[in-house]
Amino acid sequence: MKKVQKPRKPLIVYYLIVLAVLIVFNFIVFPMMTRGNIEEVDYGTFLTMVDEKQVSKVQLEGETIYFTDKSETPRQYETTRFEDPDLVNRLQESGCEFGRVAEEQMNPFLSMLLSLVIPIVVFIVIGQILSRQLMKKMGEGSGGPFMQFGKSNAKMYVQSETGITFNDVAGEDEAKELLTEIVDFLHNPQKYQEIGAICPKGALLVGPPGTGKTLLAKAVAGEAGVPFFSISGSEFVEMFVGMGASKVRDLFKQANEKAPCIVFIDEIDTIGKKRDSQGFAGNDEREQTLNQLLTEMDGFDASKGVVILAATNRPDTLDPALLRPGRFDRRIPVELPDLKGREEILKVHAKKIKVGDDVDFGAIARAASGASGAELANMVNEAALRAVRENRKFVTQSDLEESIEVVIAGYQKKNKVLSTKEKLIVAYHEIGHALVAALQTNSAPVTKITIIPRTSGALGYTMQVDEEERNLMSKEELANKIATLTGGRCAEELVFGSVTTGASNDIEQATKLARAMITRFGMSDRFGMVALETQANPYLGGDSSLSCSPETATQIDDMVVDTVKEAYDKAMALLRENQGKLHELAKYLYEKETITGEEFMNILTQKSLPDEEQKPVETSDNANID
Length: 626
Ligand code: ADP
Ligand code: MG
Ligand code: ZN
Fold this sequence. Notes:
It contains 22 helices and 17 strands. By secondary structure, the protein is α/β, with parallel strands linked by helices. It has a seven-stranded mixed sheet. A hairpin with a 6-residue loop joins strand 4 and strand 5 (about 75-80). It starts with a strand and ends in a 21-residue tail after the last helix. Adenosine-5'-diphosphate binds next to helix 8, helix 13 and helix 15.
C-alpha cells in the first residue's frame, strides 16, 4: 500500500549545508586569505638567508618552517625542512629569534570571526530550523523526521493494489447493493446532481465481528477506482492530548485534496463512544478527537465527492451525534450470513484451494449454522491443512466436516486419556443429550456424537443440525432445547446415581435460554410481553442488564429455576422410559467413540435387546464426584 506523504527536506540536509560551508571556509578560504602574503621558498634559499643573517624570526612547525626577513617591512616566507640535526645551532649562531610567525600575521578580525561569530550563527540557524519544523507539525500535523505525532498515518489504497472486489465478498447482498450506490455516485456524480439527490456523506457498516465489514470497505476501494484512505479508530488514540484531533484534521485535509475519494475509519467505536460526564480524565482526549471528527464531517462539502465509511461492531455505544443525518446517515447492516450466504462464502474461499468432487457445500453450510464469514474462511483453510497433513492432493467432505468441529470445539486431544469410568460417564452424558433431543418433537436431528476430547475442554459433544435455516423458535422448541441441554446431566444421575462437573456448560446455556424466555421473549404467563432486560450489545453477545424492580428480579429468578427444573423433570422422564436404549446406545458410543446420526437413529428405532444385555458396568464407587 502506498503511503501518502508530503515531500519535505529532512533536517539532515540543513546540517550538511552548514558543514559544507564550514569545510570550505576552513580549508580553502581562510588558508588563501592568510597565505596570500606568504612566499614559498626552497630549503637551500632559506639556509643561504640564515647564513647571510637576513632572517629575523623563525617558527618551526614539524616539517614546515615559517620565517621573516629583516627588511623594513618584514615579509613572510615558508619552506619545507629536510633532515638537518644542526639546524637549531645554525639558527642560533646567525642570531635568529624563535617565535610565532604565521599567526601573528593573521587578521585579528578573521580570528574573532572564526572563534566566536560563526559558532553562534550556526547555533542560531539550527535552532531556527528546528523550531520552525516543530511549529509546523504542531500546527497542521505534517511530518518531519523527529516528531510525527500529528500525522494521520492513513494508508491510501488504490484500486489496483487491493485487488479485492465485490466478487470476493459473498452473501452480503444488501450491503453490497447499498455500497454500490456510493461507488456509482463517485463515478457519475452528475447523474445524481441532475435530479437533485445528495449522496450520503457517510455510511456505517455495523455487524458482528468477522462478517466482512473491513473486507467490504476494501472491496469498495477496489471497485470505486478512487483514492481510498484507511485508518483504524485506535490509531487516533495518542499519548499526547490534542494529537488525536490533529490527526483527524490531517486526514480530512488529505481527503479534501484528493477528492473524489473514500475515507474508511475501521473500529470507529474506539473514538466514537458516547460522551458522558462520568468518565475519567483520560476521556478528554477521546472527546476532543470525536468533536474534531464531528466538525470535520459537517465542514466538508459532500458534492465534492468525499465519502466516509466506518465500521463497528458496537453501534449501541456510538455517540448519537455521529449517527444523525448529515454524518453517518446510512447504516449498512452486515449480519451473520444465512444458509445461502454461508454456502457462497465457503465457495468463494474454496476457489483458492483444491476441492474433491464429493464436497457438498450445502451440507457444510447447514452444519456450520451461526458461523461468521471469518470462521467459514478459517474452516476452509483448516480443511486444506488437514488434507495436506494426510497427504492428499485435494480437500474432501470429511476434511470440511472435521474442520467445522475444529473451529467450534478445537482440535482433537489425542493424548488426553480418560479413565474407563470417566469415558463411560461422558458416553452416557452425550447419549442423554441425543436421546432427549430425538425423543422430542421439534428438535433438530442429531448428526454426530463423539466422546473424543477436544482442546476447547469439551470431553465430548452431540451435534445437532437443522434441516433448514431457522429464524424463529417457538416456546415449545425453546423448552425442548432446554430439556435437551439438561439431558446429559439426567443420564448421569439416572445411571450412576450421582452427578459430575461435566455439565457446567449445559447449565450455563440452559439458564441463559430460560432467562431470555422470561425477560426478553415474553414467554412467561406471569409477565407476558414485558421487556425486563435489555441487551447492551447485540453483536458481541452477553451483557444484558435487568431493568426491573428487585422484587421482580427475585420472581424472575424463581421462574428461571422452575423452567429449568421442569425441563429437567421432562428429560428425566423421557430417559427413564427409554432406559434400555440409553444403555444400548451408550455402550455403542463407548466402544466406537464417534457415531453418526444415522447409526444413532438405527439403534434407536431397532427393536430393543433383552434387558440384561443392556446393563452398564457397575460403577458404584463414584458417589463423590460432583
Ligand atoms: P470484520 O471487519 O467484519 O470483523 P473482516 O472483514 O475482517 O471482518 O473479515 C475477516 C475475514 O473473513 C475476511 O478477510 C474474509 O477472508 C472472511 N470473510 C468475512 N466475511 C466474508 C464474506 N462475506 N465473504 C467472503 N469472505 C468473508
Ligand atoms: Mg474489521
Ligand atoms: Zn452436556
